[in-house]
Predict the structure.
Amino acid sequence: MDDVPYLMRGRRTVTTESSVLISSSKFLNDGRVREWVVDQNLRKAGDDVPLTYGIPSLIAAMRELQDHDRIEFLFNEARKDWPELDAWLSERFLSRLTKADLEKCAPESVGGVFYSYLVRQNLQIDIIPSFEPKSAFEYFFLRGVQIHDFMHILGGVGFDYISETVPAFMKFGNLFRWFGPELAGLLNTQNTLLVMPGLTRTLLHYPGSFPAKWKLAQYGMEVGRLSDALFLPKFEDHLDLTPDEMRAKFGVRGVKQIDTGRLSETSETVLEDFDAAVVG
């Protein structure tokens, strides 16, 4: 034992009759998840393979790997003493909002800001094809996709690459405030695999940007922690409100206006650039 390096002690060999790679982790066992984690943690940004390219495969893997029955049970436990959650899960509202619906919104309204972004980027609203949810988890996932862009607007950031840190960490902070740790963790599994590799590859390849990205993560976490349950509202019914008015209506707290487009212009954003980008 004295010949074994201290940090390598305690290893024991586990045998298996399996002829293929297998572990006690269902995530490690899934080739789609392994490929995503390796690629997204270690790669650089490049136009040849967009950072979003593997997301459909990851989503498919998560729908298969998540324990839908356990999530259903935990949702049912949570809804017993939470009338708003109970109503939300019973109704399972899904938005039918279209780009054309936003065209009439005033430019300064939430709907107007969203429409301007879609036009500027030549995008449609439904980047993830809609489907009929078969479980509470599938409904939570689909509704989360539908409100994701509103989290950008209500979180006070743009729609550029670095801004994605904020709604992702708003979700961490918000779910761990409003749910027990097991359900919050299960509902954040996909979010974790989507957002955490961005921190790793930034530190590996663009270290000048890491402090600013980390501050965005802290900021998003705090907004989520301070706010009301952000997954419950029908934001689509109030698109005529300005961002400040919608924040007040739905209890989105601790928000600053941050020019994330300025931060995304360079791969070597320094911390002073972050402070200068906080415009309100």
